[in-house]
Design a protein that fits this description.
By secondary structure, the chain is mainly alpha-helical. It contains six helices and no strands. Helices cover about 60% and strands about 0% of the residues.
Length: about 110
């Protein structure tokens, strides 16, 4: 005798693309993060260039710029990285595009 389980809802959740989950989680974490000023020698970073001791990186400050933008600190956001606001707009567009695509797939 074999057991059969209904897995319709589970399968629909398993089809959500990892990219969509990643971008939503990243935005959520940046939105709840405290936008504090970080001193270069005291904060942790995932940046490989900063970890190698290089003082300049084109992406450093982007996460802090997005965090400040989510908290309404537009001037500080632009100060940390001028691409922070365009990055929010581009990633938001990608989230909406992926969400619409997945919603259409679920409806069919």
């Amino acid at each position: 005798m074999t057991l059969k389980f209904k897995t319709g809802k589970v399968k629909s959740f398993m089809r959500i693309p990892l990219e969509l989950v990643f971008w939503i989680a990243a935005f959520w974490f940046m939105a709840i993060a405290k936008p504090a000023d970080h001193h270069e020698e005291l904060h942790f970073t995932f940046c490989p260039l900063a970890n190698l001791g290089m003082s300049w990186c084109p992406g450093c400050g982007l996460g802090r710029a997005i965090t400040h933008f989510f908290h309404g600190n537009i001037r500080e956001s632009i100060h940390y990285h001028w691409l922070g606001i365009p990055a929010v707009l581009i990633i938001s567009y990608r989230i909406v595009t992926l969400g619409r695509y997945e919603w259409k797939k679920l409806k069919n």
